[in-house]
Design brief:
Blueprint (H helix, E strand, L loop, with lengths): L3 H18 L5 H16 L3 H17 L7 H15 L3 H18 L5 H16 L3 H17 L7 H15 L3 H18 L5 H16 L3 H18 L5 H16 L3 H17 L7 H15 L3 H18 L5 H16 L3 H15 L8 H16 L1
Helix pairs in contact: 1-2, 2-3, 3-4, 4-5, 5-6, 6-7, 7-8, 8-9, 9-10, 10-11, 11-12, 12-13, 13-14, 14-15, 15-16, 16-17, 17-18
């Protein structure tokens, strides 16, 4: 982690020297303003970051050509800060200003335009403007496809981005088509064990899973695992994620023993990982419990849910929503086993937490109350 306060101290010293030696609108000042703005952005001081990026932009706007084109970079930087603040409309406004400058100064197929189109597309996607996001990602992709190697490989990133938008729209078949185009480019350019191929395989596996094509999802998840097993140490967290993904597909296919095997492999890695990664073992125990529930083995499900709860209880405050979820899971198993008094005890614990959490989570308490009602009804 960088020492931002120290960095800021020295950048401010540099600025002080420049300000004493140079006229107010001198281009050299922009370097200091940008450096200070970048540190403030990294520190989360977004208003200060904006202040200094805007000072830089003001100088570039009044500079003679071609230096005035640097104002486009300033607008891009300003947009990044607005994005970090969650102000997507202002980010879009700044990216569009940068694009306008680039469009006036550069040929239509210049790579910088592809970057601008990509930035605008990303903001539209964040705002839920999916058709607009597609429009600009496709413009970006068109430019990258016509650039010389190795820049043309950026078209694979464009196809990945297009796939993400289609996924967000629920159009999984189009998402799959775009991910496959990205994979084809990566396969032609990269060695078979390259980490980027693992990412592409994982993307395709996820879409197949969303489409209910579990056998295809398993096929691509196993390709991911093969790359990770060859490249990573046996206890690497990425392997735990791969094991988890394969287990989930096996569970969806009803291959419960296989699902357990891979969830347990995942859990074993998380248990030996350093804090806070080892807390993921609780998720593994929850997943193992789900499989046992699906197999009708409620006592083993209860055992796993209790292990998950113990981990959460040690790591989280008493009123954390995750504890409510654990109480709910344990209550449901007790209910399935006919342990009505235990089920009530844990449903009520879950309700107690959900009553004090934000309104968006209060719906969970309604489910608990329904279940409490069912338990009393069955008594």
């Amino acid at each position: 982690m960088g020492n931002h306060s120290k960095a800021l101290e020295f950048h401010e010293k540099a600025l002080k020297i420049h300000e004493q030696a140079l006229p107010q609108g001198h281009p050299q000042l922009t370097s200091s303003y940008n450096n200070i703005a970048a540190v403030h952005n990294n520190m989360g001081n977004h208003p200060k970051a904006l202040e200094f990026y805007e000072k830089s932009c003001k100088i570039w706007e009044t500079a003679p050509p071609p230096m005035n084109l640097n104002s486009a970079n300033s607008y891009d930087n300003i947009a990044v800060v607005y994005n970090n603040m969650g102000n997507h409309s202002k980010a879009l406004e700044s990216y569009e200003k940068a694009l306008k400058i680039h469009e006036q100064a550069l040929p239509q197929d210049h790579p910088q335009l592809a970057i601008s189109y990509n930035n605008i597309a990303a903001v539209h996607n964040n705002m839920g403007n999916h058709p607009k996001a597609l429009e600009f990602y496709e413009k970006s992709c068109k430019i990258w496809e016509t650039t010389p190697p190795p820049m043309n490989l950026n078209s694979a990133n464009s196809y990945d981005n297009i796939a993400v938008v289609y996924n967000n729209m629920g159009n999984h078949s189009k998402a799959l088509e775009s991910y496959e185009k990205a994979l084809k480019i990566h396969e032609q350019a990269l060695p078979q064990d390259h980490p980027q191929l693992a990412i592409s395989y994982s993307n395709i596996a996820a879409v197949h899973n969303n489409m209910g094509n579990h056998s295809k999802s398993l096929e691509f998840n196993e390709k991911v695992l093969k790359i990770h097993e060859q490249a990573l140490p046996q206890d690497h967290p990425q392997l735990a994620i791969s094991y988890n993904n394969i287990a989930a597909v096996h569970n969806n296919m009803g291959n419960h023993p296989k699902a357990l095997e891979f969830y347990e492999k995942s859990c074993k890695i998380w248990e030996t990982a350093p804090l806070p990664l080892n807390l993921n073992s609780a998720n593994s125990y929850d997943n193992i419990a789900v499989v046992y529930n699906n197999m009708g083995n409620h006592s083993k499900a209860l055992e796993s849910y209790e292990k998950a709860f113990k981990i959460h209880e040690q790591a989280l405050p008493q009123d954390h929503p995750q504890l409510a979820t654990s109480y709910y899971n344990i209550a449901a198993v007790h209910s399935n086993m006919g342990n009505d008094s235990k089920a009530l005890e844990f449903y009520e614990k879950a309700c107690k937490i959900w009553k004090i959490v934000p309104p968006s989570m209060n719906l969970n308490s309604a489910s608990s109350y329904d279940n409490i009602g069912r338990v009393y009804n069955n008594k």
